[in-house]
Amino acid sequence: MEDRKEQKNVGRRGFLKTIAATSAMFALQPAVNKVKAANNLITDGDLLAVEQGDMQYRVLGTGKAAFKVSALGFGVMGMNYNRSQAPDRQKCIRIIHEAVERGVTLFDTAIIYGPLRNELLAGEALAPFKGKVNITTKFGHEVVDGKSTGRQDSSPKTIRRYCEESLRRLRIDSIPLFYQHRFDPKTPVEEVAATIGDLIKEGKVQHWGMCEVNADTIRKAHSIQPLTAIQSEYHLMHRLVEENDVLEVCRELGIGFVPYSPINRGFLGGSINEYTIFDPNNDNRQTLPRFQPDAIRANTRIVNVLQQFGHKYGMTSSQVALGWLMQKAPWIVPIPGTTKSSHLIENLHTLHFNVSPEEWNELEVAVTAIPVMGDRYNAEQQRQVGH
Ligand SMILES: NC(=O)c1ccc[n+]([C@@H]2O[C@H](COP(=O)([O-])OP(=O)(O)OC[C@H]3O[C@@H](n4cnc5c(N)ncnc54)[C@H](OP(=O)(O)O)[C@@H]3O)[C@@H](O)[C@H]2O)c1
């Protein structure tokens, strides 16, 4: 594990060096790679490779804020919110149980997903594993009578109420990691941090994190109540956190990083094209500039680069996308979501490939040469991030 104290005052160049060092570490993971050919087939050997007991672990945060989790988490959101797919409840629960059996200990949801329905699903599915796995959830988006108002409310009184309600829906006594989902301009970050500090003292919350905030906000929040993780969008088509010092400040302060939408909402998995029809009632991708047909057509070149790269190792493009994120630093834990057992196995199998830092760098150079068409968010969503 990287010694973050020693590297405390290293600047952006230091971060790049760290990347090289951790890339080497990732390349040295025990080889349990049983892929037989450079295609997308999953063999019996692969199934064994991701059986329980084969999981690797990572630590988000340091000191009292340290939180040990499986090296890959599971995003529950898309099982019943915003990703078109809508398997019945029992099928979702079976997939979540399979993730637990395969060693996943980090499950991610939020009050706003559904709203409320996603927390209820996660709570029901994970109830048999109380104390053995962790459900992380998020407050901030205002929800009234089960509906989003579009406003933010992170006032101390509301955080406390949301905490109590989430505990009930998740069927737990303490939230393992409670994130502020979006910055609330009406509530100073110091007040949010102090409220969480009180909830930690009371045992209702164990760790905390923030989503899509800037480096200054992270510093202010961390000085009041040490943060365990920052959760922001990060993948090969959106690398803002490398440029705006967010990853650098996480490294410097010993805060973990959880990249959300690590497969770019499925796009890097290669099964979305310009003809893909998103469910008009249950998919926000249709509102995103990057998921308009022209952008999809242009950006498919990026998926092709990942597929081409993966051919050499027998990796699918999803595995390339996840592996690239994980080799960036040992304190990065992606949370891909899926409704399919086959994708769950495929994604977990990412942990067993050996790719050298030089080869990851070649991938990065090839992807960077292709301009990404379309913004990641529409104007309203963009207004809520980066504070
Ligand atoms: N903090 C925030 O603001 C924020 C925002 C968005 C998301 N999140 C969190 O991040 C988690 C993941 O994000 P996400 O769902 O937006 O994006 P994602 O994990 O990048 O992509 C999920 C999509 O990829 C597909 N997929 C998964 N594995 C695949 C594979 N191996 N091959 C091809 N397709 C595959 C899934 O479809 P199938 O069901 O067909 O597999 C699903 O539609 C969410 O569950 C949520 O917890 C947080």
Written description of the protein model:
Strands 3-4-5-8-9-10-11 form a 7-stranded parallel beta sheet, covered by helices on one side. It has helices at 12-27, 44-49, 89-101, 117-126, 156-170, 189-201, 215-224, 240-243, 246-253, 293-311, 317-326, 341-348, 357-368, 379-383; strands at residues 57-60, 67-70, 74-75, 106-108, 134-139, 141-144, 147-152, 177-180, 208-211, 229-233, 256-260. The longest helix has 19 residues, at 293-311. The two termini are 31 Å apart. With 387 residues, it is α/β, with parallel strands linked by helices. The chain is built from 14 helices and 11 strands. It has a single domain, classed as NADP-dependent oxidoreductase domain (TIM Barrel), CATH 3.20.20.100. Helices cover 39% and strands 12% of the residues. It binds NADP nicotinamide-adenine-dinucleotide phosphate (NAP). NADP nicotinamide-adenine-dinucleotide phosphate binds at residues 75-78, 83, 85, 108, 211, 231, 260-266, 269, 271, 318, 335-340, 343, 346-347.
